[in-house]
Amino acid sequence: MTLPSPGTAYSLSANKAIVIDGVAPTVTINQAGTQPDPSNNTTINFTVAFSEPVTGFDTSDISFTGSTAEGTLTANISGTGPTYTLGVSGMTSDGNIIASINANAVTDLVSNTNTASTSTDNTVTYTTVLPPIPNS
Ligand SMILES: [Ca+2]
Ligand SMILES: [Ca+2]
């Protein structure tokens, strides 16, 4: 090959947008701000907040490991991201609902996958006892 002479200027021309994103998305999940705990609501809401826009978030990414409420816990995701609302229904007994997000559930713009969710309070106690217990 022919080497360019010293001092030759190079340019990326007009397209200088290079995306360098080595940061994996993180995600938090906590009981929604308006969610009473304990609660007799038939749908229990959590707020899921990713650190950046992601694709591929769906109900298969939700884990209910550790939950003690019986029944087939069913997830419903709403919102446009990167913050979503997770509604959980299907409880057939009193007990705790604990929701988390699996690692490698979503990807960011350059296909970095997420780490598992962290939480300050991702547990809501579902109770069928009436009248409703005041918020705590
Ligand atoms: Ca997914
Ligand atoms: Ca709680």
How would you characterize this protein structure?
The chain is an all-beta fold. It has a single domain (27-126), classed as Immunoglobulin-like (Sandwich). The chain is built from no helices and eight strands. Strands 1-2-5-4 form a four-stranded antiparallel β-sheet, with no helix packed on it. It has a two-stranded antiparallel ribbon with strand order 3-7. A hairpin with a 4-residue loop joins β4 and β5 (83-89). The protein is rod-shaped and about 85 Å long. One calcium ion is lined by residues 56-58, 60-61, 105-106. One calcium ion (CA) binds at residues 56-58, 60-61, 105-106.
CATH architecture annotation name: Sandwich
Strand order of the largest sheet: 1-2-5-4
The percent range for strand residues is 25-35%
End-to-end separation in angstroms reads 73 Å
User: What's the story with the biggest beta sheet?
Assistant: 4 strands, antiparallel
Bound molecules: calcium ion
**How large, in whole angstroms, is the Cα Rg?**
22 Å
Helix tally? Answer: 0
Segments where pLDDT lies below 50 for 5+ residues?
none
Spell the H/E element sequence. Answer: EEEEEEEE
How many domain modules? 1
Q: Average pLDDT value?
A: 91
Could you give the count of β-strands?
Answer: 8
Shape estimate:
rod-shaped
Structural class per helix/strand content? Answer: mainly beta
* Share of residues in helices: under 10%
Q: What is the CATH topology classification name? A: Immunoglobulin-like
At the first level of CATH, the class is Mainly Beta
